[in-house]
Amino acid sequence: APEPLDLSAVVTARARADAELLGRSARGDREAFAELYDRFSRPLYATALRITANPTEAEDVVQEVFVTLWEKARAFEDSRGSAFAWAVTLTRNRAIDRVRQRNRRTELLSETTAEDAGTQPAPAGPDSAGALAASEHAGAVRAAVKSLPPEQRRALELAFFDGLTQAEI
């Protein structure tokens, strides 16, 4: 019979490999950075999409995160967490900032009269095609966290996707 898979060993090995790729990227290794992109881009996009609910904004967030990873790879310290956790945190923060900016723009537009702006304000909210794409991608994120116990899944959703603090949860 095959030996059972040691999940913690797999996670540790992957974290080490990610840290090595980020370290090589810090030294200007474009191939290492490309491999890091291949490993991280899908989950980071799914994260950004879940938060922004907008495929275009999610793509922009992921691009910004990878620019940051390239520029600040030297600042990464694996003693503080994994490279993937750092990338996810950057993605989460950028995506939440995007949503806040969008909400603030919508708020400002709603306070502005058509005469003030010289035009009619655009309606807020995603278009139906964008909403459909966001819905499809959100399914991928839900599938990824589905294997967690319900209480862990809910805590993760509240903290990560809704931006709640530990005290608020």
What does this structure look like?
It is globular, with a radius of gyration of 19 Å. The mean pLDDT is 81. It contains 7 helices and no strands. The chain has helices at residues 7-26, 30-52, 55-72, 83-111, 114-117, 128-145, 150-161. The longest helix has 29 residues, at 83-111. By secondary structure, it is mainly α. Helix 2 (30-52) crosses helix 4.
Summary, kept brief:
The chain has 169 residues and is mostly helical.
Largest sheet: none
End-to-end separation? 43 Å
Distinct helical segment count: 7
**Mean of pLDDT:** 81
Shape type: globular
Keywords:
globular; single chain; 7 helices; mainly alpha; 0% strand; 169 residues
Topology record:
Blueprint: H1 7-26, H2 30-52, H3 55-72, H4 83-111, H5 114-117, H6 128-145, H7 150-161
Helix pairs in contact: 1-2, 2-3, 2-4, 2-6, 3-4
